[in-house]
Every structure is written in C-alpha cells, then in structure tokens.
C-alpha cells in the first residue's frame, strides 16, 4: 500500500521529467528517483522566483509558463538577459560553483516548476553522467548566445538587433520561420538596449517592407 501511494505521488513528476531536455537519456530508475525528490511549485504572474544575491539552494525546471532572467540598477532600470520557456531550467551555475544567484528570475506568466534541492541535485550529477552532459551542453549553448548578444550590441544598429532577436526566437515549421512565443515590445527593448518606441518603429518598418508578417498567435519571418 505504501509503495502504491508513493508511485501515485511521483507519477505526475515522472511524466513531466520525461519531456524535459535536461533529462534526455536518463534511465527510468534514476528518473523515478529525481521525481521522488523533486518538489512541484506553482507561482502566479509577476512572482520573483529567485533574487540576485541570494544563496543558491535549488535547481528550478520550468514545466509550463514563461519567465524572464533580468537585472536592474539602483534607479530601477531593467535589462532582460534572456527569456525562459517550458523545458528550460535555471539556478545550475550557483549550484556548481557555490556562488550566489547572479540575476532575478521573474514569472511573466503563471508558472509550474519542479524544484530540486542543492544536495539532491549534486547527488544526481554524481550518479548520472547523462544529466551532467546535458547541463554542460546547455551551459555551452547559453555561453554562445551571450557571445552573440555581446557582438550584436557592439556591432549592430537597432534594426539589426531587432532582426537578430526575431530570428533567435523563431522556429522552423514546414520550411518557414515562425515565432509563437509571446514577447512584448517592452521586453524586446530591454533585451537589446533600445526604447520600446524604437522597437515598435522597427517592427512596423519590417512589416511594411515584407520581412515579417504578423498573424494571430504568431509572427512569420519571410526569407525573400
């Protein structure tokens, strides 16, 4: 009876974990152990999930919803470092090097999260090389993205930065690049170091020129 109750408790988490890239290739037995130790958490929109400077005590996996990783100065000016969607995770850097949180993570939509405590996360890394490899791949991918962002800020004008951001957000569907992620012009402005008004102007110019097509629920990028 106790075993049946435990299975019913972890079954929802186990189903979620199987669909998250960081756990690709992980054996079912190890996945079941992660499901057992992971804690589910739901937060409403605008919740500050973690704060910069806080001690890093857990890994967070975003199951549903969306969040922004951001920093702000003493005057409240905000820069968005990246946007996170379902299947992505955060908090891993501080768990690896024992440093405090480097940025705020704020829910932009209602979010469902899986939370894995620091000690449990380190045991998972030691026990399963697939998890460690997936973490390393993700860190390398984020480093490359940061390099490209620095390059665009240094070398591109606002038109180029907006165009590159749209391309980064897009996914290939039936041979066409499409953006389905809901991103506000204000968020775009905070990601590329421009004003919301300038982003709106560039988006309008790109649409008039035929480079993008705004449709209900998506933006289509035209290659021609």
Automatic annotation (TrEMBL):
One Gene Ontology MF term: DNA binding
Keyword tags: DNA-binding, Transcription, Transcription regulation
Domain Cyclic nucleotide-binding: 22-142
Residue ranges of domain HTH crp-type in the record: 156-224
GO CC term (a single one): cytosol
A Pfam family this chain is assigned to: HTH_Crp_2
PROSITE patterns reported in the protein's UniProt record: CNMP_BINDING_2, CNMP_BINDING_3, HTH_CRP_2
Domain of life: Bacteria
InterPro entries according to UniProt: cNMP-bd_CS, cNMP-bd_dom, cNMP-bd_dom_sf, Env_Response_Regulators, HTH_CRP, RmlC-like_jellyroll, WH-like_DNA-bd_sf, WH_DNA-bd_sf
Tagged with keyword DNA-binding: yes
Protein name: CRP/FNR family cyclic AMP-dependent transcriptional regulator
The species this protein was found in: Rhodocyclus tenuis
């Amino acid at each position: 009876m106790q075993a049946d109750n435990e299975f019913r408790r972890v079954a929802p988490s186990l189903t979620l974990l199987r669909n998250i890239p960081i756990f690709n290739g992980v054996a079912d037995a190890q996945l079941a152990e992660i499901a057992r130790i992971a804690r589910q958490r739901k937060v409403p929109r605008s919740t500050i999930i973690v704060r910069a400077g806080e001690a890093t005590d857990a890994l967070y996996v975003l199951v549903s919803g969306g969040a922004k990783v951001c920093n702000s100065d003493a005057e409240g000016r905000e820069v968005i470092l990246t946007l996170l969607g379902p299947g992505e995770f955060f908090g891993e850097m501080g768990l690896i090097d024992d440093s405090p949180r480097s940025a705020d993570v704020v829910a932009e939509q209602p979010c469902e999260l899986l939370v894995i405590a620091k000690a449990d996360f380190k045991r998972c890394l030691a026990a399963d090389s697939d998890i460690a490899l997936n973490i390393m791949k993700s860190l390398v991918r984020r480093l490359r993205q940061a390099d490209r962002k620095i390059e665009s800020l240094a070398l591109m004008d606002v038109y180029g930065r907006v165009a590159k951001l749209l391309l980064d957000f897009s996914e290939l569907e039936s041979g066409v690049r499409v953006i389905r992620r809901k991103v506000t012009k204000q968020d775009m402005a905070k990601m590329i170091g421009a004003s919301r008004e300038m982003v709106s102007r560039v988006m309008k110019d790109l649409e008039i020129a035929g480079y993008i097509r705004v449709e209900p629920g998506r933006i289509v990028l035209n290659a021609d």
